[in-house]
From TrEMBL:
Bilayer-crossing regions: none
Protein's name in the database: Protein asteroid homolog 1-like
Molecular function GO terms recorded: nuclease activity
Compositional bias ranges of the Low complexity kind: 649-662
Residue stretches making up the XPG N-terminal domain: 1-96
Amino acid sequence: MGVQGLTSFVERNGHFLRRQRVRDTRLVVDGNSLYYRLYFTSGLDQQHGGDYDSFASVVLQFFEALFTCHIQPFVVLDGGIDASDKKFQTIKERLQSKIREANNLSRDKNGSILPLLTRDVFLQVLFSLHVPVVQCVSEADWEIAALANQWGCPVLSSDSDFYIFDLKGGYLPISYFQWSDVVMCERTSDSYIPASLFSVNKFCTQFNRMDKKLLPLLAVLAGNDYVGVPSVERLFSACQLSQGGKTSCRIENLLRWLSRFKGLEQALAEIEGQVGGVDRQAVRSQLSSKMQDYRLSESHVASFFAGGSPTFILPYPLASLPPWVLQALFEARLMPLVINVLVLQRALLSVQVENSQLASSHAGSVLLRQELYGLLLDWKQRRGQGACDLGREWAYSTRGRGQVQRTCDLGWRRAHSTHGRGQVQGACGLGQDQATYGQGLMYVVEEYDRQNLDLRRSAVPSTVSQLVRANPLEKMNEGPLERSQHLLLNILQVPVSVVEFAPPALALPACVTVYWLRSCGPRITQQHLQALVLGMVYGEVCKLRVSQRGPALSCVRLQRIREARGDRTKLDLDSAHVFSQWQSCLWVSLLLNRLLGSPLPEPDCARLYSGTLVHRLVRELRGGVPAEHMVEGALPRQLYCSLFSAIQGATGPASSAPASASSKKRRRRRRRHGGRRPDTGDVANRFSLLQLDDD
């Protein structure tokens, strides 16, 4: 997470860096830093939920630049929250800050919010390019540094911790990595990327040839994210070091003070002398412990890139996971949320741009998360852990779905619900190892999400249905996909007809959209659904056009709307909120689909949603333009009708009832005649769940 003020200090002193031509080398890439940097520096939409197609294009161009220069990237990603919780307070503070920034963006003010599916889009591009990638168990900084040192190659990141690690191949700050300006050497015809390299050795020579072993002490004293030494401020006062002002000035003062010492022991002895009293040994112990984070040894992930398994020491219960689940975690095909839920029974939900006066957009996907938590925690409980008391008891006064009312232990506790799916009252420490929840079982997860403009925690009960009991996590990669598909559709409460009628590549998004229409309230209008479906059609047509390498397929009108310049219309908060709800539902459903063995095809996330396009389409549709007039050509129009009909047919009043004999006969006839889709007429009847705009 970095050392406060160190990056700005180095950037103000360019002589600490040297120019470097990067080519013909391995490169260890900090994946989290990279996708943040690429998104935020490419002028991409943040206010409307993201333009994932444009982001995918940027990621593709970045790695193509590396390949042109014969640079072999190895991407390392952060995993879950550190089980020690040493950085948890900082994580919560940053999440709170993001809530404020998202609110600013919703009011057309400044802010920076990474759209929800950015990481998924980034990874899908990497998988398509066969770029080696590994996901760590927790924060990746140490693993990145250890791997680069083992290979003797540079690190690419924006994390200031890499100014502290003693890296043999040096550190390449992303801000100086000019990947979009690849240079070809006229004499050799070789290509390279201009960059700037940071070397610890060169840096220390600028400060009286300071011992580089003092740099970890600099990081701790300067306020590394989780520093908590109570006597440090007293130390600053005793040594007459500046505590206030710019953090970069504080860094410089610390460097000049540390450069007076011949080595680490002398500096620690001076600190002990200044602190004095009973704190002396405690301070040394805490400082030494925190400096250990910068001491490098053999990499745990080098073996993974060589075709083996990482050598992480895994916290309980990860070591006992089914091999296919553990492998999917290492390959970053399963999100860090899985680690957090299994290890800590905790979930931190990403901030989106939405209407902050309403419930969080993630409230719309709470039932899906309950099923997800149940699938994971039921497996954990059956591993023999029994009661898993997290030692936190709080009081709740909630009436919403998916929350606990009254004081509740965050462990395995008994609770009875008479208020329907997703709402539990009286989940109070009755001392039981498991909880009755309707026809299934319930465990509790500590969730952190937005409430108004504050970060709030809540206890969310998990659902373990009889269907999950019959299909436990460890058996999800066994047996026919039809069984997993049945379970997924049951979780989404979607009839199989949606999968039968939707194009295969869009089957999962279609199911998610049906769930969204049913679960996310009356603010969703017909125009919202039409815009969302048109956006999916546009993405799919663009994808087909690229694969066919020709202009035969096009959506000229949609493309013109998507690429229009100078649109400064104020953000429509209702649209922003419902589309954020849809993204939340999709995000959870992607993870569920992967955990169930991908019974539905993994959709291309880059082509599913363009915030700029769908928000503009809502305005066009409200202006009276028929949705069918937005698509030209037989194939795009057929794609729209198929997808729209699949969704609309499942949201009518009769869709939740058992199919009659006559309807089953009609479905069989449609299959015999090539799966012809139902007509898109009679919109008023089929949109009984949708609120029509008054505009």
